[in-house]
Request: fold
Amino acid sequence: SSEGSLRDAEDLARRIGIRFAVVPIDPVFDAYRSTLRPEFGEGGSTLPEENLQARIRGATLMALSNRFGHLVLSTGNKSETAVGYSTLYGDLAGGFAVIKDILKTLVYRLCRYRNSIADVIPERILTRAPSAELKAGQTDQDSLPEYEILDAIITRYMQEGESIADIVDAGFDEGVVRQVVRMIRTSEYKRRQSPVGIRVTHRS
Reply:
């Protein structure tokens, strides 16, 4: 994680009164890379190593859960879950998915609402570009359409049952619509393995 994320997380933990701890994953990550180097070789896609980081984090959280009896909360929102922007056995690990039926744009609106009651979520968390932080300079929009567009397509396709043609006729770029629908369809295997969560819409 970036230094900025660590600062934001610590700030948030202090504001809401929960314990904060940093568990470095570098030694475990280096051991995995060393173990896999004979098979991976040099160069090639960095995706396996990016996902390894998420999986090490997931295993670490589950170990803490076992040790202290806490419940690991999965962090994926509906936008990410719908299109498979998540790592099996990584950020999908956990016992309960609190916001799995909340679109990313609504997550931000809920955060703003919560801060209108009491200022608990640092502003920087709400204004910096969202990122999985699995490689330098990464943002969600490297792989996904802008969330306003993505969420509108997800709502029309998943919740309202509109066809690709209907969505395109409503003014959305056909290439983007087909990309999102393809991601939704090919991510079913991940959704089947994700933790249970709160249902908010009529089609979670």
About this structure: The first strand starts at residue 73 and ends at 74. The radius of gyration is 18 Å. The beta strands are 73-74, 96-97. The chain has ten helices and two strands.
